[in-house]
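Please decode residue identities from the backbone states below.
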């Protein structure tokens, strides 16, 4: 049970990191266009 929780946390952390990187990329694109 604990192992599943740890794996879920890793997946969630990876997913959030991926979204954060995409959001940062979009911000950089806007700055470049401006």
């Amino acid at each position: 049970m604990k192992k599943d929780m740890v794996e879920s946390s890793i997946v969630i952390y990876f997913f959030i990191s991926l979204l954060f990187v995409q959001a940062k990329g979009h911000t950089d694109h806007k700055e470049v266009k401006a």
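Observation: The two ends are 50 Å apart (CA to CA).
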